[in-house]
Amino acid sequence: MPYPATRPRRLRVTATLRRMVSETTLAPDDFIYPLFVVHGVGVRRPIGSMPGICQLSVDEAVAEAGRALGLGIPAVLLFGVPATKDAVGSENFADDGIVQQATRALKAAHPELLVIVDLCMCEYTDHGHCGVIRDGRVDNDATLEILGRAAVTYARAGADLIAPSGMMDGMVAAIRAALDGAGFAETGIFSYAVKYASAFYGPFREAAEGAPRFGDRKTHQMDPANVREALRELALDVAEGADLVMVKPALPYLDVVRRVREACDLPLAAYNVSGEYAMIKAAAANGWIDERAAVLELLTGIKRAGADLIVTYHALDAARWLRA
Ligand code: PBG
Question: With a 6 A CB cut-off, is 312 part of the ligand 1 pocket?
């Protein structure tokens, strides 16, 4: 029945009715909050391109995670900034490395907090690449061995989930084997299964101090033009034993989120990355956009596309706004 019998606006007449017919809900339980952990005590070093986000020493990370928990956010995603970098990223697989220290402190202070540790080599290596370099190229299989060793140190420190983000072939299988071999069969793998070579990681590379010193990441991260390839990457990670999967970035890839959602029944996250955050913060700082409305809209859009969980630097603000 067309107009005038049918009037979709009837369902939009009052705020209560709009709320009751809303198809997508957003809650603090959906959020994963990234933390950049550095050596030292009492350090809160602001990241210029990410207003509101700081590099944090372990004690400050514990306090920040407490604030997140207090707002109902259940999980953090840790990135470590090491004291020294070398060719193989040694601090990444040191039991007293910064991310291992942070994991222990966070689990001791907040046992109910879910601690996810990002696993890659780029923050830890002097060349800034996501793997071992041989003849000027990332050596996939030599990298897998190091990823497995690092994952075991994270698990030993108490990490709930290991999140490999380096897009190496076979990374999920190698990490699963290493964890199982070390007695950590219950530690899960949250795979960045579908990760694009994106210009939107720029601010993160300042935050995590992990920009490549030469070249780029296009030999391992995916071409933004591809979606069939995303489904292949997804299928491989599922077959290798991933427990949860991620698509990254989020906003230019909502169609990919939808395709992945339809292709797989594992929990799915989308990563609302640093460049997406920086754009919103810059526009808001100039008075060009209503930050609160824009953030709640984009997070709702990511969920509507099919994500169960959202990794986002807006987590604390969004949780506060959802409560208000
Ligand atoms: C790699 C990693 C990156 C991000 C998360 N893990 C950077 C990259 O791949 O170059 C980006 C996250 C963001 O931009 O917010 N360890």
Answer: no
What residue owns the CA closest to ligand 1's atom 5?
165
Mean pLDDT, the chain, rounded, equals 97
Q: Which of 85, 248, 281, 303 is catalytic?
A: 248
The pLDDT of residue 70: 98
Average pLDDT over residues 306-311: 98
pLDDT confidence bin for 324, thresholds 50/70/90: confident
Q: Active-site residue 248, yes or no?
A: yes
Q: For the chain, which residues make up each domain, given as ranges? A: 24-323
For the chain, the three-class secondary structure string (H helix, E strand, C coil) is CCCCCCCHHHHHCCHHHHHHCCCCCCCHHHEEEEEEEECCCCCEEECCCCCCCEEEEHHHHHHHHHHHHHCCCCEEEEEECCCCCECCCHHHHCCCCHHHHHHHHHHHHCCCCEEEEEECCCCCECCCCCCEEECCEEEHHHHHHHHHHHHHHHHHHCCCEEEECCCCCCHHHHHHHHHHHCCCCCCEEEEEEEEECCHHHHHHHHHCCCCCCCCCCCCCCECCCCCHHHHHHHHHHHHHCCCEEEEECCHHHHHHHHHHHHHCCCCEEEEECHHHHHHHHHHHHCCCCCHHHHHHHHHHHHHHHCCCEEEECCHHHHHHHHHC
* pLDDT 10s digits, 189-204: 999 999 999 999 999 9
Q: What is the pLDDT of residues 240-249, one digit of tens each?
A: 999 999 999 9
- Which of the four CATH numbers 3.20.20.70, 1.20.58.100, 3.30.365.10, 3.40.50.2300 does domain 24-323 have? 3.20.20.70
Ligand 1 atom having least distance to the Cα of 195: 9
What pTM was estimated for this model as a whole?
A: 0.97
Ligand 1 mean position to 201 CA, how many Å? Answer: 6
Whether 85 is a known active-site residue: answer no
Q: Cα of 123 to ligand 1 centre, how many Å? A: 9
| Structure confidence by residue, pLDDT tens digits, 152-166 | 999 999 999 999 999
Tell me: pLDDT of 210 over 90. no
